[in-house]
Automatic annotation (TrEMBL):
GO cellular component, one term: Golgi membrane
Keyword terms: Coiled coil
Naturally occurring in which organism (per UniProt): Homalodisca liturata
Coiled coil stretches, renumbered: 148-196
Molecular function GO labels: fatty-acyl-CoA binding
Domain of life: Eukaryota
Pfam families listed in its UniProt record: ACBP
Comp. bias intervals (Basic and acidic residues): 295-312
Annotated ranges, domain ACB: 48-139
Protein name in UniProt: ACB domain-containing protein
Bias kind Polar residues: ranges: 283-292
Segments of this protein annotated with the region Disordered: 239-312
Length: 312
């Protein structure tokens, strides 16, 4: 097989293959051309090595079935694969052929004719020859490329879906954590308010309970807890009403005052004088910060309403 010689690696365009049979060679004529990896990528969309693997797969699947190559074409294509797999032909490394092994001898001559063709050049020429001989080859590559792109697109879409799902779960977890923190903060605040109210009213409620259940500490304790719980809920209800219906404090009338004692069976158990001086004294000793929503006017109105209810 004749090849053009040059100072550097040879580049071939497989144009025609005219076999000239002799005992030692099969001569193939080629025209010189340039074809590098960038051109291969531009035309077929795959690197040379990947494209060669696809071409070899196409050859093995189609040869003798959908496509029938001539004897000489098959010799040449096989010679290219030998050059790719084993490099330059070397008779010393090969077992001897049988006397009647004509096909084996032809294959070795085709391989030997490739001379110093590099692995990359052999892959490239195998692809070029297959493309020239088989119009279906380009369609096969394009179909494989479309399938690969579709799989890559599905993979990207799945990764994008997973990222969005992970982000959604992260946001949900962050929201849940913040809600839990807010509930915990509110519970701490609720306990602080209730503890402050209980401390403030314990003596009054204790005295009232002793009047209701003399000599019965257990019933007294139950009643005190009931009164304190009622007191807390009334306080929070009125506080909420004031927050939603009244503008922010603007005058001295809105100075801090603590809540008066809570009802017990419809009456106000008030063991402290109903004066501003005593109210101020209670306020200065109290530990309840939320009572800042109460004003002297509010306290007086609340007391009057309780007294009226008790009178009824």
């Amino acid at each position: 097989m004749a090849v053009t010689q040059g100072s550097g690696p040879q580049d071939y365009e497989i144009d025609s293959f005219e076999p000239v049979h002799s005992e030692n060679s099969v001569v193939l004529s080629m025209k010189e051309m340039k074809l590098d990896d960038d051109q291969v990528m531009k035309k077929w969309g795959f690197p040379l090595t990947d494209l060669y693997k696809l071409a070899l797969k196409f050859y093995k699947e189609k040869e003798g079935k959908a496509i029938h190559f001539s004897y000489q074409d098959k010799l040449t294509l096989i010679a290219f694969t030998k050059q790719v797999n084993y490099g330059k032909y070397n008779a010393d490394t090969l077992p001897p052929l049988g006397v009647l092994d004509v096909i084996g001898r032809d294959r070795r001559m085709a391989w030997q004719a490739l001379g110093d063709l590099t692995k990359e050049e052999a892959m490239r020429d195998f692809i070029l020859m297959l493309d020239r001989l088989c119009p279906l080859f380009t369609a096969f590559i394009e179909a494989h490329k479309a399938d690969l792109e579709a799989r890559e697109r599905r993979k990207w879409e799945e990764e994008d879906r997973k990222k969005k799902e992970e982000e959604r779960l992260r946001l949900e977890e962050e929201l849940r954590r913040k809600e839990e923190e807010e509930r915990a903060r509110q519970e701490i605040q609720r306990r602080q308010i209730q503890d402050a109210l209980n401390q403030q009213t314990y003596a009054q409620f204790k005295a009232y309970a002793e009047q209701q259940y003399p000599g019965n500490p257990e019933q007294q304790g139950v009643l005190v807890r009931q009164l304190q719980d009622q007191h807390y809920h009334q306080y929070m209800q009125q506080l909420l009403q004031q927050q939603t219906s009244r503008p922010e404090p603007e005058s001295e009338e809105n100075e801090v005052e603590v809540e008066p004692p809570v009802l017990a069976n419809g009456t106000l158990h008030n063991s402290q004088p109903d004066s501003e001086e005593d109210d101020d004294e209670i306020n200065s000793q109290g530990t309840m910060s939320m009572a800042s929503m109460w004003t002297r006017k509010d306290v007086r109105e609340f007391k009057e309403s309780i007294r009226r209810e008790g009178g009824e």
